[in-house]
Amino acid sequence: MPAATCPRCGAPLTGSETLKRVCAFCHTEVAPAQAERVVVREIVERVVLVDTTGRTSLACPRCSAPLFEGRTTMALLHGCGACGGVWLDNAGTRCVLGLVDPQIVALADRASDAAARTASTERRALRCPVGGEELGVAAVGDVELDVCALHGTWFDKNELHRVWALLVDQHRPAYDYGPAAAQAREDEREARAIFGVLGFRD
After folding, report:
1. Is 183 helix (H, G, I), strand (E, B) or coil?
2. Cα–Cα distance for residue pair 136/69, rounded to 1 Å
């Protein structure tokens, strides 16, 4: 930010911009600059309410039961106690697809194991629990995921575990310069393609 100068002689002014100043060189009185106020606004798209039991204001896209909040060290997920499905935001989904946080899978497995009933997983249009948009479909191996590119991914009961297992099976060490290295490059290409389908950007 450039220093304030005297409007008469151009000498630099010192002191506060909100008080009347006098130029030290020509003694001209300089009125305070009109103070600018910076207002920071954050637009909140959706507010998710969470009660003391972890029950949220989000509804399961599969069976409409309320979703419960769970956290790992790296991600926030919302699980359905009724059908065992799990909603992961985009950051959490990246952790799963990048094989970064196995705690997410463990938490999703607990939600699947605790499911009160088995919901129909017939292929029908589901709605994003955050924004209400119709979820798209993306395939990871033989698993069809319901995806909102803006907000996250819905994993039906046990789907998160199946996706994780598939990705672990495909993982190859990058330091191998033989056929495994070629496979690792192919796996990386496929992973990037999956990210593209899900709408994620590097």
Report:
1. helix
2. 23
Query: With 50 as the cut, is the pLDDT of residue 66 above it?
Result: yes
- Tell me the sheet residues that pair with 137: 146
Where b means 16+ CB within 10 Å and e means fewer, 70-92 reads bebeebbbbbbbbbbbbbbbbeb
pLDDT digits (tens, 9 = 90+) for 151-176: 999 999 989 888 888 887 776 444 44
* Beta carbons of 152 and 90 less than 8 angstroms apart: yes
In whole angstroms, what is the distance from residue 135 CA to residue 57 CA? 19
Q: How many CA atoms lie within 13 A of 175 on its CB side?
A: 0
Q: CA angle, corner 195, sides to 155 and 186, nearest 5? A: 115
Residue bearing tokens 């009660």: 51
- Which residues, in sequence order, are bridge partners of residue 10? none
- 3 state SS of 62: coil
> Is the Cβ–Cβ distance between 131 and 72 less than 8 Å?
no
